[in-house]
Protein backbone atom coordinates (compact mmCIF):
# COMPACT_ATOMS: atom_id res chain seq x y z
CA UNK A 1 0.00 0.00 0.00
CA UNK A 2 1.51 3.41 -0.91
CA UNK A 3 1.95 5.81 2.03
CA UNK A 4 -0.75 8.47 2.30
CA UNK A 5 0.43 11.55 4.22
CA UNK A 6 -2.42 13.55 5.76
CA UNK A 7 -2.60 16.85 7.58
CA UNK A 8 -5.20 18.35 9.95
CA UNK A 9 -5.74 22.10 10.29
CA UNK A 10 -7.65 24.09 12.86
CA UNK A 11 -11.01 25.36 11.61
CA UNK A 12 -14.36 26.22 13.10
CA UNK A 13 -16.79 24.23 15.16
CA UNK A 14 -17.80 20.68 14.17
CA UNK A 15 -21.50 20.05 13.73
CA UNK A 16 -23.83 17.36 12.45
CA UNK A 17 -24.97 13.76 12.77
CA UNK A 18 -22.73 11.01 11.46
CA UNK A 19 -22.90 7.24 11.58
CA UNK A 20 -19.57 5.72 12.53
CA UNK A 21 -18.72 2.33 10.92
CA UNK A 22 -19.51 -0.99 12.58
CA UNK A 23 -17.68 -2.36 15.61
CA UNK A 24 -14.46 -4.10 14.63
CA UNK A 25 -14.48 -6.70 17.42
CA UNK A 26 -18.12 -7.60 16.80
CA UNK A 27 -17.63 -7.68 13.02
CA UNK A 28 -14.78 -10.22 13.23
CA UNK A 29 -16.84 -12.38 15.54
CA UNK A 30 -20.02 -12.21 13.49
CA UNK A 31 -18.21 -13.59 10.44
CA UNK A 32 -16.47 -16.28 12.49
CA UNK A 33 -19.64 -17.44 14.24
CA UNK A 34 -21.62 -17.23 11.01
CA UNK A 35 -18.97 -19.52 9.50
CA UNK A 36 -19.49 -22.01 12.35
CA UNK A 37 -23.28 -21.92 12.43
CA UNK A 38 -25.43 -24.30 10.47
CA UNK A 39 -27.64 -22.28 8.14
CA UNK A 40 -27.63 -18.74 6.83
CA UNK A 41 -26.69 -15.69 8.88
CA UNK A 42 -27.39 -12.12 7.70
CA UNK A 43 -25.22 -9.38 9.13
CA UNK A 44 -26.21 -5.73 8.99
CA UNK A 45 -23.72 -2.93 9.65
CA UNK A 46 -20.59 -5.06 9.28
CA UNK A 47 -17.37 -3.04 9.30
CA UNK A 48 -15.81 -3.33 5.86
CA UNK A 49 -12.38 -2.26 7.12
CA UNK A 50 -9.27 -4.10 5.95
CA UNK A 51 -8.96 -6.10 9.18
CA UNK A 52 -12.44 -7.59 8.90
CA UNK A 53 -12.02 -8.29 5.19
CA UNK A 54 -8.96 -10.38 6.14
CA UNK A 55 -11.14 -12.43 8.46
CA UNK A 56 -13.70 -12.93 5.70
CA UNK A 57 -11.01 -14.01 3.28
CA UNK A 58 -9.46 -16.48 5.75
CA UNK A 59 -12.85 -18.00 6.57
CA UNK A 60 -13.47 -18.52 2.85
CA UNK A 61 -10.11 -20.29 2.63
CA UNK A 62 -11.37 -22.49 5.49
CA UNK A 63 -14.43 -23.44 3.46
CA UNK A 64 -17.17 -21.05 4.64
CA UNK A 65 -19.35 -19.15 2.20
CA UNK A 66 -19.32 -15.39 2.87
CA UNK A 67 -20.82 -12.83 0.52
CA UNK A 68 -21.59 -9.15 0.51
CA UNK A 69 -25.09 -8.65 -0.89
CA UNK A 70 -26.24 -5.74 -3.05
CA UNK A 71 -28.13 -4.13 -0.16
CA UNK A 72 -24.88 -3.86 1.83
CA UNK A 73 -25.69 -6.70 4.24
CA UNK A 74 -23.46 -9.76 4.47
CA UNK A 75 -24.53 -13.39 4.27
CA UNK A 76 -22.61 -16.34 5.70
CA UNK A 77 -23.37 -20.00 5.18
CA UNK A 78 -21.56 -21.91 7.90
CA UNK A 79 -19.89 -25.31 7.99
CA UNK A 80 -20.92 -26.29 11.52
CA UNK A 81 -18.53 -26.51 14.48
CA UNK A 82 -15.70 -28.86 13.51
CA UNK A 83 -16.58 -28.53 9.83
CA UNK A 84 -13.82 -26.21 8.64
CA UNK A 85 -11.50 -27.50 5.92
CA UNK A 86 -7.71 -27.27 5.58
CA UNK A 87 -6.76 -24.05 3.77
CA UNK A 88 -4.69 -24.54 0.64
CA UNK A 89 -3.09 -21.10 0.94
CA UNK A 90 -1.39 -19.02 3.60
CA UNK A 91 -3.80 -17.07 5.81
CA UNK A 92 -2.54 -13.50 5.68
CA UNK A 93 -4.14 -11.58 8.52
CA UNK A 94 -2.71 -8.22 7.44
CA UNK A 95 -2.63 -5.74 10.34
CA UNK A 96 -5.14 -7.59 12.53
CA UNK A 97 -4.15 -9.15 15.86
CA UNK A 98 -7.77 -10.03 16.58
CA UNK A 99 -8.18 -11.94 13.30
CA UNK A 100 -4.88 -13.78 13.79
CA UNK A 101 -5.37 -14.76 17.42
CA UNK A 102 -9.05 -15.73 17.24
CA UNK A 103 -8.62 -17.76 14.07
CA UNK A 104 -5.54 -19.51 15.48
CA UNK A 105 -7.80 -20.57 18.35
CA UNK A 106 -10.54 -21.71 16.01
CA UNK A 107 -8.32 -23.89 13.79
CA UNK A 108 -6.30 -25.32 16.69
CA UNK A 109 -9.02 -27.89 17.43
CA UNK A 110 -9.55 -28.82 13.78
CA UNK A 111 -7.40 -31.74 12.56
CA UNK A 112 -5.41 -29.91 9.89
CA UNK A 113 -2.52 -27.51 9.42
CA UNK A 114 -2.88 -23.78 8.74
CA UNK A 115 -0.14 -21.27 8.05
CA UNK A 116 -0.58 -17.70 9.32
CA UNK A 117 1.25 -14.50 8.48
CA UNK A 118 0.67 -10.75 8.69
CA UNK A 119 2.07 -7.35 7.80
CA UNK A 120 5.19 -5.69 9.23
CA UNK A 121 3.25 -4.68 12.37
CA UNK A 122 1.51 -8.02 13.05
CA UNK A 123 4.69 -10.10 12.68
CA UNK A 124 6.16 -8.12 15.59
CA UNK A 125 3.29 -8.92 17.98
CA UNK A 126 3.42 -11.68 20.63
CA UNK A 127 1.57 -14.89 19.82
CA UNK A 128 2.76 -17.04 22.76
CA UNK A 129 -0.14 -15.65 24.77
CA UNK A 130 -2.45 -17.80 22.60
CA UNK A 131 -0.13 -20.67 21.67
CA UNK A 132 0.63 -21.51 25.33
CA UNK A 133 -3.00 -22.28 26.29
CA UNK A 134 -3.87 -23.74 22.88
CA UNK A 135 -0.91 -26.15 23.17
CA UNK A 136 -2.40 -27.39 26.45
CA UNK A 137 -5.54 -28.26 24.45
CA UNK A 138 -3.44 -30.46 22.13
CA UNK A 139 -2.53 -28.20 19.19
CA UNK A 140 1.07 -27.64 18.18
CA UNK A 141 2.70 -24.58 16.70
CA UNK A 142 5.77 -23.75 14.70
CA UNK A 143 6.45 -20.04 15.08
CA UNK A 144 9.56 -17.96 14.66
CA UNK A 145 11.91 -18.33 17.63
CA UNK A 146 10.50 -15.31 19.49
CA UNK A 147 6.92 -16.58 19.24
CA UNK A 148 6.08 -14.31 16.31
CA UNK A 149 4.33 -14.96 12.98
CA UNK A 150 4.69 -16.27 10.32
CA UNK A 151 3.95 -19.68 11.73
CA UNK A 152 1.96 -22.87 11.42
CA UNK A 153 -0.85 -24.20 13.57
CA UNK A 154 -1.09 -27.99 13.60
CA UNK A 155 -4.60 -28.61 14.84
CA UNK A 156 -5.44 -31.60 16.99
CA UNK A 157 -8.06 -34.29 16.36
CA UNK A 158 -8.11 -35.17 20.08
CA UNK A 159 -8.67 -31.80 21.78
CA UNK A 160 -8.72 -31.70 25.57
CA UNK A 161 -10.63 -29.09 27.58
CA UNK A 162 -8.63 -26.82 29.87
CA UNK A 163 -9.17 -24.41 32.71
CA UNK A 164 -6.91 -21.44 32.10
CA UNK A 165 -6.30 -18.28 34.13
CA UNK A 166 -5.35 -15.40 31.85
CA UNK A 167 -1.91 -13.99 32.71
CA UNK A 168 -2.76 -10.79 30.78
CA UNK A 169 -6.15 -9.09 30.57
CA UNK A 170 -6.94 -9.97 26.95
CA UNK A 171 -10.24 -10.60 25.22
CA UNK A 172 -8.32 -11.95 22.25
CA UNK A 173 -6.73 -14.69 24.36
CA UNK A 174 -10.01 -15.44 26.14
CA UNK A 175 -11.81 -15.67 22.80
CA UNK A 176 -9.12 -17.83 21.15
CA UNK A 177 -9.52 -20.39 23.94
CA UNK A 178 -13.33 -20.30 23.92
CA UNK A 179 -13.35 -20.71 20.13
CA UNK A 180 -11.03 -23.72 20.46
CA UNK A 181 -13.34 -25.02 23.19
CA UNK A 182 -16.37 -25.06 20.88
CA UNK A 183 -14.95 -28.14 19.11
CA UNK A 184 -13.53 -29.74 22.27
CA UNK A 185 -15.58 -32.36 24.15
CA UNK A 186 -16.13 -31.28 27.78
CA UNK A 187 -15.95 -27.92 29.52
CA UNK A 188 -13.34 -25.32 28.57
CA UNK A 189 -12.97 -22.52 31.12
CA UNK A 190 -11.16 -19.20 30.98
CA UNK A 191 -10.64 -17.29 34.23
CA UNK A 192 -10.13 -13.55 34.04
CA UNK A 193 -9.13 -11.44 37.04
CA UNK A 194 -10.06 -8.23 35.18
CA UNK A 195 -13.16 -8.24 32.99
CA UNK A 196 -12.32 -7.80 29.29
CA UNK A 197 -14.73 -7.22 26.40
CA UNK A 198 -17.38 -9.96 26.33
CA UNK A 199 -18.55 -9.85 22.71
CA UNK A 200 -17.61 -13.50 22.18
CA UNK A 201 -19.74 -14.62 25.12
CA UNK A 202 -22.70 -12.45 24.15
CA UNK A 203 -22.63 -13.48 20.51
CA UNK A 204 -22.22 -17.18 21.27
CA UNK A 205 -25.36 -16.94 23.40
CA UNK A 206 -27.10 -15.17 20.52
CA UNK A 207 -26.22 -18.21 18.37
CA UNK A 208 -27.69 -20.54 21.01
CA UNK A 209 -24.55 -21.67 22.84
CA UNK A 210 -24.74 -22.16 26.61
CA UNK A 211 -21.96 -19.89 27.94
CA UNK A 212 -21.63 -20.14 31.73
CA UNK A 213 -20.18 -17.46 33.97
CA UNK A 214 -19.25 -17.81 37.63
CA UNK A 215 -17.69 -15.31 40.00
CA UNK A 216 -14.94 -17.08 41.96
CA UNK A 217 -14.00 -16.50 45.61
CA UNK A 218 -11.19 -14.12 44.67
CA UNK A 219 -13.58 -12.06 42.53
CA UNK A 220 -12.25 -13.39 39.20
CA UNK A 221 -14.74 -14.41 36.53
CA UNK A 222 -14.77 -17.98 35.13
CA UNK A 223 -16.28 -18.21 31.65
CA UNK A 224 -16.99 -21.67 30.18
CA UNK A 225 -18.29 -23.32 27.07
CA UNK A 226 -19.09 -26.99 26.68
CA UNK A 227 -18.21 -28.73 23.45
CA UNK A 228 -18.93 -29.97 21.07
CA UNK A 229 -21.29 -27.05 20.70
CA UNK A 230 -23.85 -26.28 18.01
CA UNK A 231 -24.37 -22.79 16.67
CA UNK A 232 -27.71 -21.94 15.12
CA UNK A 233 -27.61 -19.28 12.41
CA UNK A 234 -29.09 -15.98 13.65
CA UNK A 235 -29.26 -12.55 12.09
CA UNK A 236 -27.08 -9.82 13.54
CA UNK A 237 -26.91 -6.03 13.70
CA UNK A 238 -23.41 -4.66 14.35
CA UNK A 239 -23.44 -1.48 16.44
CA UNK A 240 -21.24 1.50 15.53
CA UNK A 241 -17.81 1.08 17.07
CA UNK A 242 -17.33 3.03 20.33
CA UNK A 243 -13.57 2.92 19.68
CA UNK A 244 -14.09 4.66 16.31
CA UNK A 245 -16.74 7.04 17.68
CA UNK A 246 -14.06 8.21 20.12
CA UNK A 247 -12.34 10.20 17.34
CA UNK A 248 -15.24 12.46 16.28
CA UNK A 249 -16.35 12.61 19.93
CA UNK A 250 -13.00 13.93 21.18
CA UNK A 251 -12.71 16.21 18.15
CA UNK A 252 -16.08 17.72 19.09
CA UNK A 253 -14.93 18.22 22.68
CA UNK A 254 -11.73 19.98 21.56
CA UNK A 255 -13.15 22.31 18.87
CA UNK A 256 -15.02 25.20 20.57
CA UNK A 257 -18.71 25.52 19.74
CA UNK A 258 -19.04 21.96 18.38
CA UNK A 259 -22.11 19.73 18.69
CA UNK A 260 -21.96 16.26 17.16
CA UNK A 261 -24.46 13.43 17.27
CA UNK A 262 -23.29 9.82 16.78
CA UNK A 263 -26.24 7.41 16.49
CA UNK A 264 -26.26 3.69 17.33
CA UNK A 265 -22.90 3.46 19.11
CA UNK A 266 -22.17 0.33 21.18
CA UNK A 267 -22.30 1.08 24.91
CA UNK A 268 -21.21 -2.27 26.33
CA UNK A 269 -19.62 -1.24 29.64
CA UNK A 270 -16.60 -3.44 28.89
CA UNK A 271 -15.84 -0.91 26.12
CA UNK A 272 -16.88 2.48 27.45
CA UNK A 273 -14.02 3.34 29.83
CA UNK A 274 -12.99 6.28 27.66
CA UNK A 275 -16.42 7.90 27.92
CA UNK A 276 -16.44 7.43 31.70
CA UNK A 277 -13.02 9.06 31.88
CA UNK A 278 -14.00 11.94 29.60
CA UNK A 279 -17.05 12.60 31.77
CA UNK A 280 -14.79 12.73 34.83
CA UNK A 281 -12.76 15.32 32.89
CA UNK A 282 -15.96 17.35 32.65
CA UNK A 283 -16.98 16.38 29.09
CA UNK A 284 -20.52 17.16 27.95
CA UNK A 285 -21.48 13.74 26.54
CA UNK A 286 -25.02 12.33 26.71
CA UNK A 287 -26.03 8.71 25.98
CA UNK A 288 -29.52 9.06 24.53
CA UNK A 289 -32.17 6.46 23.60
CA UNK A 290 -30.35 3.54 25.21
CA UNK A 291 -31.51 0.25 23.73
CA UNK A 292 -30.35 -3.28 22.87
CA UNK A 293 -29.63 -4.75 19.41
CA UNK A 294 -28.73 -8.42 18.88
CA UNK A 295 -27.45 -8.86 22.42
CA UNK A 296 -25.43 -5.63 22.60
CA UNK A 297 -26.45 -2.31 24.23
CA UNK A 298 -26.38 0.80 22.00
CA UNK A 299 -27.20 4.50 22.37
CA UNK A 300 -27.02 7.76 20.43
CA UNK A 301 -24.14 9.90 21.63
CA UNK A 302 -24.50 13.66 21.80
CA UNK A 303 -21.19 15.45 22.33
CA UNK A 304 -20.68 19.18 22.89
CA UNK A 305 -17.38 21.07 23.11
CA UNK A 306 -16.13 21.34 26.68
CA UNK A 307 -13.06 22.70 28.48
CA UNK A 308 -11.61 19.55 30.07
CA UNK A 309 -9.62 19.05 33.26
CA UNK A 310 -6.91 16.43 33.84
CA UNK A 311 -7.73 13.32 35.89
CA UNK A 312 -6.12 10.18 37.24
CA UNK A 313 -7.45 7.18 35.27
CA UNK A 314 -7.97 4.14 37.54
CA UNK A 315 -5.65 1.34 36.29
CA UNK A 316 -8.43 -1.26 36.55
CA UNK A 317 -10.31 0.68 33.86
CA UNK A 318 -7.60 -0.13 31.30
CA UNK A 319 -9.26 -3.23 29.72
CA UNK A 320 -12.44 -1.24 28.99
CA UNK A 321 -10.54 1.52 27.15
CA UNK A 322 -7.34 -0.15 26.05
CA UNK A 323 -7.59 1.07 22.44
CA UNK A 324 -8.61 4.56 23.54
CA UNK A 325 -5.53 5.74 25.44
CA UNK A 326 -4.03 7.40 22.34
CA UNK A 327 -7.13 9.56 21.79
CA UNK A 328 -7.51 10.17 25.53
CA UNK A 329 -3.92 11.45 25.54
CA UNK A 330 -4.90 14.02 22.86
CA UNK A 331 -7.80 15.22 25.04
CA UNK A 332 -5.43 15.28 28.03
CA UNK A 333 -2.96 17.43 26.07
CA UNK A 334 -5.65 20.13 25.79
CA UNK A 335 -7.02 19.77 29.34
CA UNK A 336 -6.07 21.75 32.42
CA UNK A 337 -3.58 19.88 34.60
CA UNK A 338 -2.00 16.43 34.46
CA UNK A 339 -3.78 13.27 33.30
CA UNK A 340 -2.23 10.19 34.88
CA UNK A 341 -2.50 6.81 33.10
CA UNK A 342 -1.14 3.74 34.87
CA UNK A 343 -1.27 -0.01 34.18
CA UNK A 344 -1.03 0.54 30.41
CA UNK A 345 1.89 -1.76 29.55
CA UNK A 346 -0.32 -3.62 27.02
CA UNK A 347 -0.18 -0.50 24.82
CA UNK A 348 3.37 -1.49 23.95
CA UNK A 349 2.23 -4.65 22.07
CA UNK A 350 -0.61 -3.19 19.99
CA UNK A 351 -0.38 -2.33 16.27
CA UNK A 352 2.63 -0.24 17.36
CA UNK A 353 4.24 0.60 20.71
CA UNK A 354 1.44 3.05 21.37
CA UNK A 355 2.87 4.29 24.63
CA UNK A 356 6.07 5.41 22.92
CA UNK A 357 4.32 6.67 19.79
CA UNK A 358 1.88 8.83 21.77
CA UNK A 359 4.54 10.19 24.12
CA UNK A 360 6.99 11.04 21.30
CA UNK A 361 4.28 12.54 19.09
CA UNK A 362 2.89 14.74 21.86
CA UNK A 363 6.37 15.98 22.78
CA UNK A 364 6.90 16.89 19.11
CA UNK A 365 3.65 18.91 19.32
CA UNK A 366 4.94 20.85 22.34
CA UNK A 367 3.32 18.86 25.17
CA UNK A 368 5.09 17.95 28.41
CA UNK A 369 4.86 14.16 28.83
CA UNK A 370 6.42 11.79 31.36
CA UNK A 371 6.38 8.07 30.59
CA UNK A 372 7.66 4.78 32.02
CA UNK A 373 7.35 1.11 31.11
CA UNK A 374 3.61 0.95 31.87
CA UNK A 375 2.53 4.52 32.67
CA UNK A 376 2.28 7.95 31.18
CA UNK A 377 1.43 11.42 32.49
CA UNK A 378 0.31 14.08 30.02
CA UNK A 379 0.56 17.64 31.33
CA UNK A 380 -2.14 19.80 29.78
CA UNK A 381 -2.05 23.58 30.09
CA UNK A 382 -5.74 24.23 29.54
CA UNK A 383 -5.26 25.19 25.90
CA UNK A 384 -4.25 23.13 22.87
CA UNK A 385 -0.50 22.66 22.35
CA UNK A 386 1.24 24.44 19.46
CA UNK A 387 1.24 21.40 17.10
CA UNK A 388 3.31 21.92 13.97
CA UNK A 389 4.72 18.40 13.71
CA UNK A 390 4.58 15.47 11.31
CA UNK A 391 3.95 12.29 13.28
CA UNK A 392 5.29 8.83 12.42
CA UNK A 393 2.43 6.31 12.55
CA UNK A 394 4.25 2.93 12.25
CA UNK A 395 1.30 1.31 10.41
CA UNK A 396 -1.00 2.18 13.32
CA UNK A 397 -4.51 3.42 12.44
CA UNK A 398 -5.31 4.74 15.91
CA UNK A 399 -2.07 6.74 16.16
CA UNK A 400 -2.87 8.36 12.80
CA UNK A 401 -6.48 9.25 13.73
CA UNK A 402 -5.53 10.49 17.21
CA UNK A 403 -2.96 13.01 15.98
CA UNK A 404 -5.22 14.18 13.17
CA UNK A 405 -7.87 14.95 15.79
CA UNK A 406 -5.32 16.88 17.83
CA UNK A 407 -4.40 18.89 14.71
CA UNK A 408 -7.99 20.19 14.50
CA UNK A 409 -7.38 22.06 17.76
CA UNK A 410 -3.72 23.16 17.59
CA UNK A 411 -2.59 26.54 16.20
CA UNK A 412 -0.17 24.93 13.75
CA UNK A 413 -1.27 21.93 11.62
CA UNK A 414 -0.46 18.35 12.64
CA UNK A 415 0.40 15.85 9.91
CA UNK A 416 0.85 12.09 9.85
CA UNK A 417 3.31 10.32 7.58
CA UNK A 418 0.81 7.64 6.51
CA UNK A 419 -2.96 7.60 6.90
CA UNK A 420 -3.54 4.56 4.68
CA UNK A 421 -3.87 2.25 7.68
CA UNK A 422 -6.90 4.16 8.92
CA UNK A 423 -8.88 1.88 6.58
CA UNK A 424 -8.15 -1.12 8.82
CA UNK A 425 -10.77 0.08 11.32
CA UNK A 426 -12.39 3.31 10.05
CA UNK A 427 -12.87 3.46 6.28
CA UNK A 428 -14.15 6.90 5.31
CA UNK A 429 -12.66 8.60 8.40
CA UNK A 430 -11.43 11.69 6.55
CA UNK A 431 -14.68 12.12 4.64
CA UNK A 432 -16.76 11.67 7.79
CA UNK A 433 -14.68 14.15 9.79
CA UNK A 434 -14.67 16.72 6.99
CA UNK A 435 -18.43 16.28 6.67
CA UNK A 436 -18.65 17.59 10.23
CA UNK A 437 -16.55 20.60 9.22
CA UNK A 438 -13.03 19.36 9.99
CA UNK A 439 -10.08 20.33 7.79
CA UNK A 440 -8.17 17.12 7.07
CA UNK A 441 -6.47 16.85 3.72
CA UNK A 442 -3.60 15.28 1.85
CA UNK A 443 -0.18 16.64 2.47
C1 LIG B 1 -9.90 -7.01 20.85
C2 LIG B 1 -9.29 -7.03 22.09
C3 LIG B 1 -8.26 -6.07 22.49
C4 LIG B 1 -8.23 -4.83 21.60
C5 LIG B 1 -8.35 -5.16 20.14
C6 LIG B 1 -9.61 -5.96 19.86
C7 LIG B 1 -10.89 -8.05 20.54
O1 LIG B 1 -7.00 -6.71 22.40
O2 LIG B 1 -7.04 -4.09 21.80
O3 LIG B 1 -8.37 -3.99 19.36
O4 LIG B 1 -11.63 -7.89 19.54
O5 LIG B 1 -10.97 -9.04 21.27
P1 LIG B 1 -6.43 -7.60 23.62
O6 LIG B 1 -7.37 -8.69 23.85
O7 LIG B 1 -5.09 -8.08 23.16
O8 LIG B 1 -6.33 -6.64 24.78
UniProtKB/TrEMBL annotation:
Compartments, record wording: Cytoplasm
Cytoplasm listed as a keyword: yes
Chemical reaction(s) catalysed: 3-phosphoshikimate + phosphoenolpyruvate = 5-O-(1-carboxyvinyl)-3-phosphoshikimate + phosphate
Origin: domain of life: Bacteria
InterPro entries hit by this protein: Enolpyruvate_Tfrase_dom, Enolpyruvate_Tfrase_sf, EPSP_synthase, EPSP_synthase_CS, RNA3'P_cycl/enolpyr_Trfase_a/b
Pfam entry (one): EPSP_synthase
Tagged with keyword ATP-binding: no
Active site (record annotation): 323
Binding site for 3-phosphoshikimate: 24-25, 29, 170, 172, 323, 350
GO MF term (any one): 3-phosphoshikimate 1-carboxyvinyltransferase activity
Function: Catalyzes the transfer of the enolpyruvyl moiety of phosphoenolpyruvate (PEP) to the 5-hydroxyl of shikimate-3-phosphate (S3P) to produce enolpyruvyl shikimate-3-phosphate and inorganic phosphate.
Protein's UniProt name: 3-phosphoshikimate 1-carboxyvinyltransferase
Amino acid sequence: MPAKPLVARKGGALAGTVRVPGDKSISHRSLMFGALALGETRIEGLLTGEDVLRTADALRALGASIERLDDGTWRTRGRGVGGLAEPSRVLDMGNSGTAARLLMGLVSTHPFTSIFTGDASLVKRPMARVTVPLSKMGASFVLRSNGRLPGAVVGTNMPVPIEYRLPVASAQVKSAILLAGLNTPGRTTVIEAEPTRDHTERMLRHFGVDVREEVLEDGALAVSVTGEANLTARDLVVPSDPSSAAFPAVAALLCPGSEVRLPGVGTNTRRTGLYETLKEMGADIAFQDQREEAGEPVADLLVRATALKGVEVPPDRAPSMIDEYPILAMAAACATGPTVMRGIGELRVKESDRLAMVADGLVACGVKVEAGEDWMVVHGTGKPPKGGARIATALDHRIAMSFLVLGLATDEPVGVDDGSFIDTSFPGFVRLMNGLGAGIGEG
